[in-house]
Amino acid sequence: MRLGPLAPGRWPLKLKVPLLVVVFMLTVAVAVSNVVLRRLASDQELHLQQLADSYLDGLSAAIQPNLLRRDVWETFDALDRARGLYRALRTKYALVALPDGSVLAASDPIAFPTGMPVPASLAQRFATGDGLAIDEKQGSAWVKRTFRQDGHELGAILAEFDISNLLQIRREVLWALVLANAGLVAVLSLAGYLVVRRLLQPIAVLTAHVHRAGSGKLEEIPPTLLRDDGSEIGQLVASFNQMASAIRDREQLAIRLAKEGRSVLLGKLASGMAHEVNNPLGGMLNVIDTLKKHGEDEQTRLRALDILERGLTGIANVVRATLTTYRGPAVTPGLRSRDVDDLRFLLQHELARRNLTLHWSNNLPDALPVDGLTLRQVTLNLLLNACAASPPNSTVEFEAETAGRGVSVRIQDSGPGLPQNVLELFRDPRTVPQVPTEELGLGVWTVCRLLGRIAGRIEVLRSDNSGTDLRVTIPFESAEVVDAVA
Question: Which of 194, 292, 327, 348 has the most beta carbons within 10 angstroms of its beta carbon?
Answer without folding.
Answer: 348
